[in-house]
Amino acid sequence: KAGVTQTPRYLIKTRGQQVTLSCSPISGHRSVSWYQQTPGQGLQFLFEYFSETQRNKGNFPGRFSGRQFSNSRSEMNVSTLELGDSALYLCASRLAPGTGELFFGEGSRLTVL
Amino acid sequence: ILNVEQSPQSLHVQEGDSTNFTCSFPSSNFYALHWYRWETAKSPEALFVMTLNGDEKKKGRISATLNTKEGYSYLYIKGSQPEDSATYLCALPPFGNEKLTFGTGTRLTIIP
Predict the structure, then answer these.
(1) In angstroms, rounded to a whole number, what is the distance separating the alpha carbons of residues B42 and B90?
(2) For B1-112, where are the E strands, in sequence order?
(3) Running DSSP on this structure, what letter comes out for residue A83?
């Protein structure tokens, strides 16, 4: 079956702009999590959605937001971009929160100039 | 805040040699431990999810053990091959919480 799909794979934005990233989970998976990877940092948890509801949120400013649709697809949005937002954003899906391994997408590489 | 530590940070191993590395975590309120392999330009891939003290899991040449009482897990690779070159991540959910906290990983390079 198809894996987790993230779009776009690469994008370049300038400071102050906003960006929306998309994630389509594996069919049947209703939980979607988002992580940020920056050089020297581990994967930092952003948020997790299940059944269109945010279940958990990491320690990120309110500029980072997300949502989940009825088909389990998820989007995350970063407003007023800063240089430090340059990172690889990974999406992962699983059947439900707390139910075992995460299945990751290949990520969206965001560069903020 | 859950503190997950991995050591060493990086490792170079000759092809054919065996190796192991460690994931350390607070022993109190343990729920589960995940191991992931992340190859360059690919997405992280789950290796194991372990929940019981004393658990041992194996997938081919890779195996893992878990000691929840002392708060560590070992990942072993037997007879390293070039395709084992990757970053190995461990992750745990804080007790009563579903989100995963990742360690910073062990970057393994296999020297042909």
Answers:
(1) 17
(2) 5-7, 10-14, 19-24, 33-38, 45-50, 56-59, 62-67, 72-77, 86-92, 101-102, 106-111
(3) G
Query: Which residue shows structure tokens 């959910």?
Result: B93
Do the strands B45-50 and A108-112 form a parallel or antiparallel pair, or are they unpaired? unpaired
Instruction: Residue count of chain A, please give it.
Output: 113
Mean pLDDT of B20-33: 89
d(CA B88, CA B106): 5
- The model's pLDDT over A59-78, given as tens digits with 9 standing for 90+, comes to 999 999 999 999 999 999 99
Burial of A37 (0-12, 13-18, 19+ CB in 10 A): middle
The closest alpha carbon to A45, from B57, B42, B89, B72, belongs to B89
Residue in A with minimal Cα distance to B3: A42
Q: Which residue has the tokens 């389990």?
A: A72
Which B residues, 2 through 41, put their C-beta within 8 Å of a C-beta on chain A?
4, 34, 36
Residues of B in contact with A106 (CB under 8 A): 42-43
Q: How far apart are CA B24 and CA A82, in angstroms?
A: 33
A106 in B contact zone (CB under 8 Å): yes
Q: Token digits for B34?
A: 């995940």
pLDDT in tens, B57-104: 999 999 999 999 999 999 999 999 999 999 999 999 876 667 889 999
A60 touching B (Cβ < 8 Å): no
